Amino acid sequence: MDRREFTKTLGAGALALTLHRAVLPFGSEAPSLAITIDDFSFFGASQTVAEQRNRALLTALRAHDNLQAAAFICGRNIDSEMGKSLVRQWGNAGHLICNHTYSHWFYPNRSFTEFAQDTLRVEALIKDMPRFTKRFRFPALKEGDTLEKRDKMRTFLKEHGYRMGYVTVDASDWYIDQRLRTRLAANPKADLPAYKQYYLDHLWDRATFYHGLALKVLGRSPKHTLLIHHNVLNELFLGDVLDMFASKGWKLIDAENAFTDQVFSTAPNILPAGESIIWALAKETGKFDDLLRYPGEDGDYEKPKMDKLGL
Ligand SMILES: [Zn+2]
Questions:
Q1: Cα–Cα distance between 244 and 171 in angstroms, integer?
Q2: How many Å lie between the centroid of ligand 1 and the Cα of residue 234?
């Protein structure tokens, strides 16, 4: 091919690209989403019940093309032979094992020094597990309420080789789970499909909110990370959650892939620091305050809706 022909081909390619872009409305590219699972709280469950829950979650992920999640481990919840063996199953199955502190303290209530020590304390439990990865997530996504505390932790994490395990799509599955467990304790024949529907609607509502916000703030679709928990709600419905996102055209991706997105290397300058990384970047611009509630997510927002539905 001579130079002229080559230029012509390039021209045709560029035209095709332009047409392709013209057909696709802005932001219509299929969003992608990874699953991240926090806490690993077994709520005092017996070994049989805890193993069953662990298996159900792992099976749901495996059934979706062996989807690889990231597990953010709270040390105090798994500080036993049983706890460690349940987490190890995640590493063995290829899921990332990440740090969510030992005690799950609310950073604003603690000094930098004690919080930093608590961060390293969990390593003794998980550092030898397969797929242990130095990625960190703050409990309740609270990254410090003063400039000094925020920046000291940022420096501390960097010095210890950690990268941030930010959430893009925050939600309140923990609150729906809490209500479901209370109801099941009172009535083992509770209306599970009603809880499932509420949960799916809630996640879809939050995912579309944070995705829409991301398009406004970043001007593009990031690789999303959804925050959910190792709990009864997801033991029952994680498969349905994955089916729902897939059926709506979202692409389910491995957490390790999602965390390569540049959005996970940002450090928004806001106080109090934290929330979803999309929320925080939106807050930092000062342009979206009408769209941002604080905290970004909370059980208080779900309570009246669940009360009304009798859930
Ligand atoms: Zn947590």
A1: 16
A2: 15
Place of tokens 């930093």: 116
Reported pTM: 0.91
Whole-angstrom CA distances from 31 to 79, 118, 200, 253 are 37, 35, 17, 10
Total number of residues shown for the chain: 311
Contact 140, 101 (CB under 8 A): no
The residues facing 38 across adjacent strands are 72, 229
CA distance 242 to 39: 20
Give the distance (Å) from ligand 1 centre to CA of residue 2: 61
Q: Are 42 and 84 in contact (CB under 8 A)?
A: no
How remote is the CA of residue 138 from the centroid of ligand 1, in Å?
A: 7
pLDDT tens-place string over residues 94-147:
999 999 999 999 999 999 999 999 999 999 999 999 999 999 999 999 999 999
Residue 111: count of CB within 10 angstroms of its CB: 11
DSSP 8-state class, residue 142 = B
Give the residue among 207, 244, 281 at the shortest CA–CA distance from 31.
207
Ligand 1 centroid to 268 CA: how many Å?
21
For residue 116, report the distance from its CA to the centre of ligand 1, in Å: 16
